[in-house]
Amino acid sequence: MNQVIDYQVATLVTTALGIRTSIAPEPAAAASRTATASQEEAEENLVSRPPVVVVLGHVDHGKTSLLDYIKSSRVADREIGAYQVEVDGNPITFLDTPGHAAFTAIRARGARVTDIAVLVVAADDGIMPQTLEAINHAKAAEVPIVVAINKMDLPGADPERVKRQLSENELLVEDWGGDIVSVNVSARTGEGINDLLENLELVAEIAELKANPDKQASGVVIEAKLDRKRGPSATILVTDGTLSVGDLIVAGAVSGRVRAMVDDKGKAVFSVTPGTPAEILGFGALPEAGDQLTVVANEREARTLIGGRDRAPGSRPLQSRALSLDEVVKQVDIGDIKEMTLVLKADVQGSLEAIRHSLGRLVDEDAKVRVLHTGVGAVTESDVLLASASEAVIISFSVGSEPSAERLSDRMGVEIRNYEIIYQLIDDIELALHGMLEPTM
Ligand code: GDP
């Protein structure tokens, strides 16, 4: 009951319990939202863009070595979290963060970034637990897999065994009558790597990846770091439109103006097109990996996007009494809609996603929940400040609060509600939304 499951799984469970299920029709509001979100771009505006490739596989099977080999032969040594190489004049973008942890973190935050997953399997070791995990992650993301059977230079290399093991896990490579491309490589000698790159290019060609460069950019933060001299910098990947120096940007809870951009070769650039990574300077604070990047027209739009914090921070007088869950349900001007703002903290990313997902279902015509910020780990002072500035309530799920955050919340009158069970959390919020929550002592 603490997990979001898909309809098929739910049906299996309910059938076993003798319960029949059916899918409820989408509410009109949700349906129209989907329609605008997936609005098709006019074909004539679309141009090809480079594929974005992630390298997955079991630990020590050679993910880093493979990325390094590809990088060393083609780009200057610059660590920006992603890089591009050209194959027959066509660029391919590699995320330079091997392993599915990063891939899943980005995906868990709702970003669709990768087009192809390279599954690295050591030829002397075969399929291992993390290989299977990687396969499942790629399948869940509906990303095509290209297999790289690595360490072919080793005497114990047995690529046929790897292919057989893959077939036992529903991945049929071409030799086995399937359509999965598999290439024998060695990240040590470089054997087969050109062949791998050419195959990636082919898979990308079939996928017909396109984007419209003639509009305001959107993208995703791949990684971010604080540089003592230069301030916050982030590697971003533009997914649509063109990002230019001077653009006002918002990523997650952070805004800024693009002051400078540097490409993977260390060259200053003034604009970046879809499928291309760059390091950007100009954020006001550190964004997080997986944050969606959006270009906005003005400061006002930036504030609205971040969470409507129109008031200058700190301008609100300290309160003596906590704003309780049902008190934060506000009448929003437009059409009498009730809105509740939340800051969500949880033990793990999975819980956050599950809670968010369930909260999304509470939305109806006259009430909605706005999640201002989510994070893994204990409630911190900065969560309390954020909640206070936005008249939000903090919901913590299976995590506590730092003592300093607790003191601050008392002082500022911010309620922190702790839950251990998702459905109780959701129930309370639903009740509060409808003004029916029992007062707490
Ligand atoms: P990762 O954990 O998947 O990123 O694996 P690494 O790239 O760190 O590689 C693990 C070990 O395998 C290192 O000692 C590499 O030098 C070695 N290795 C990687 N690729 C090859 C290869 O093609 N041949 C041989 N002989 N060793 C390799």
TrEMBL record:
It comes from the Eukaryota. The keyword Flavoprotein does not apply. The chain holds residues 1 to 441 of 538 of the full protein. It comes from Geodia barretti (Barrett's horny sponge). This is Translation initiation factor IF-2, chloroplastic. The keyword GTP-binding applies. Signal peptide: none annotated. One of its GO terms (cellular component) is cytosol. One of the essential components for the initiation of protein synthesis. Protects formylmethionyl-tRNA from spontaneous hydrolysis and promotes its binding to the 30S ribosomal subunits. Also involved in the hydrolysis of GTP during the formation of the 70S ribosomal complex. Residues 48-210 form the Tr-type G domain. Belongs to the TRAFAC class translation factor GTPase superfamily. Classic translation factor GTPase family. IF-2 subfamily. Keywords: Cytoplasm, GTP-binding, Initiation factor, Nucleotide-binding, Protein biosynthesis.
